[in-house]
Predict the 3D structure of the following.
Amino acid sequence: MALTMATLANDGSPATPFTQPVEGTTLSIDMRPMPGTDPPAWVSRDEISWDLYDALVYRLDVPADAGPTEGVTRPTKPYLMADRGWGHAGFPALSVSPRGAEAFCVWLTSKTGRVWRLPTVSEWTALCEASGITPDSLDAHAWHAGNAEKRTHAIGTRQADANGLHDLWGNVSEWCRAADGSQVLMGGCYLDGGPGCSMQKVPTPAWNDTDPQIPKSVWWLADAPFAGFRVVCEAPPGKTAEEETANDEPAK
């Protein structure tokens, strides 16, 4: 994704924030333009909450009498108290594997008709570098090692950064796609100092050592309560991915 000096919608106007309702629920996701992206893209204002992730895991978006097959692969229900008792409604989902984060993007794409994905490492780094957060302002913007008391906190309870985003640094680290297609966690969490926009955590088997299941879960990381994510949308508000594709086709 090329970088430019401005973020514009397809009609040439400045890209603006929008709110994405999630069909079948009362939930929504607030989206903010990512500065300097061409074509434009939007990133979620907040880390994905338990409220949203529960809708995927527990099928809260479908009627109780709906059949078991719907074309969406859903993560299994957690086998332990995944939130660790730190807080659930309004708190960031944690101990989520990269496969679980990707599944959320696929589910959201199926729900909305727009393209959703994880940020790339370069996109996340650019957002961090443009956040305006400094060591002196870290307390105001982030739950980190110096103020979090070794646990996560409700999303949006620290000040938004210069991009209008909450918790980009701190609370949980966030799954992103690396250039080689792998997933890494970017940024600090409630256990880290900072800020440090190039900080990465590469997944290791130790992140799931205490999983009692045989075989171990591919959806949850029992020993990585610092692993969360936010999402990116590539289609502008009011248009689906199909409409965007149609607009790109030459007139006949």
